[in-house]
């Protein structure tokens, strides 16, 4: 793990704090996520507990057909679990992950009734699914392709923006359990998240520092390019 993080630090130029994003949610000792239970919850929900079917928004097996809702298929289950925990309010404390201007995310009421076991099960199920690259999002803006590639591979040196590939890998596959896969993700969704990082509505110190140095055109270019990676 240390060698992986050290390599990421060297490539990306991010000098502090990368280990902070690796914090996961460990299973109880001896427990293992149940993919079958996760699939049942993902497909059907549990109306008795107020849990809505995830598939109604994120598509069959996590392959979303709606650009506003991200593809989840094949995303590392540790990463999905972390995000679900961040969407979920903690007793009297608000959720860590919010929408624009600090408004509650649309995911907050969806995540609120989930138990830790639910989160682990559904995340584990999604992590075993395959992203359908035949229908997944791809790059569409040829005019910004070169700029997006430059930012992805080399960052923006004069603004001290590191390369995206350093943490999310050259082909956008990410680093399991550490950094999410971005290849095949909807460009608009990626851009929205970068803007939320920039405004600090989605709290993440590393990504805030990076996105805060990026213009809207930089964000749009690299988001479109990332979607087309394979």
Summarize, please.
It is built from 11 helices and no strands. It is mainly α and 230 residues long.
Mean pLDDT: 89
Large-scale geometry: globular
Quote the beta fraction: under 5%
Question: Please, how many domains?
Answer: 2
Determine and state the CATH class of the largest domain.
Mainly Alpha
CATH H level, superfamily name of the largest domain: Cytochrome c-like domain
Can you walk me through this structure?
The protein is an all-alpha fold. It has 2 domains: 32-127, Cytochrome c-like domain (Cytochrome Bc1 Complex, Chain D, domain 2), CATH 1.10.760; 144-227, Cytochrome c-like domain (Cytochrome Bc1 Complex, Chain D, domain 2), CATH 1.10.760. The protein has 11 helices and no strands. It has helices at 2-12, 35-44, 55-58, 77-87, 108-111, 116-127, 145-154, 165-168, 187-199, 205-211, 216-227. Helix 2 (35-44) crosses helix 6, helix 7 packs across helix 11 (216-227) and helix 9 packs across helix 10 (205-211). The longest helix is centred in the last third of the chain and has 13 residues, at 187-199. The radius of gyration is 17 Å and the shape is globular.
């Amino acid at each position: 793990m240390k060698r992986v993080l050290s390599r990421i630090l060297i490539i990306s130029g991010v000098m502090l704090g990368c280990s902070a994003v690796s914090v996961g949610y460990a299973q109880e000792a001896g427990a293992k996520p149940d993919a079958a239970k996760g699939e049942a919850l993902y497909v059907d929900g549990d109306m008795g507990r107020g849990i809505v079917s995830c598939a109604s928004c994120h598509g069959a097996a996590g392959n979303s057909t709606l650009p506003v809702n991200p593809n989840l298929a094949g995303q590392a289950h540790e990463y999905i679990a972390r995000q679900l925990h961040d969407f979920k309010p903690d007793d009297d404390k608000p959720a860590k992950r919010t929408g624009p201007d600090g408004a509650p995310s649309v995911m907050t009421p969806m995540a609120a009734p989930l138990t830790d076991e639910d989160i682990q099960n559904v995340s584990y199920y999604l992590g075993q699914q395959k992203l359908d690259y035949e229908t997944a999002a791809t790059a569409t803006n040829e005019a910004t392709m070169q700029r997006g590639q430059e930012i992805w591979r080399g960052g923006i040196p004069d603004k001290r923006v590191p390369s995206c590939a350093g943490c999310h890998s050259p082909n956008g596959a990410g680093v399991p359990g550490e950094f999410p896969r971005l290849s095949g993700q909807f460009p608009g969704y990626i851009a929205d998240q970068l803007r939320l990082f920039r405004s600090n509505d989605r709290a993440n110190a590393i990504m805030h520092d990076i996105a805060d140095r990026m213009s809207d055109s930089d964000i749009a270019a690299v988001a479109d390019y990332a979607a087309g990676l394979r």
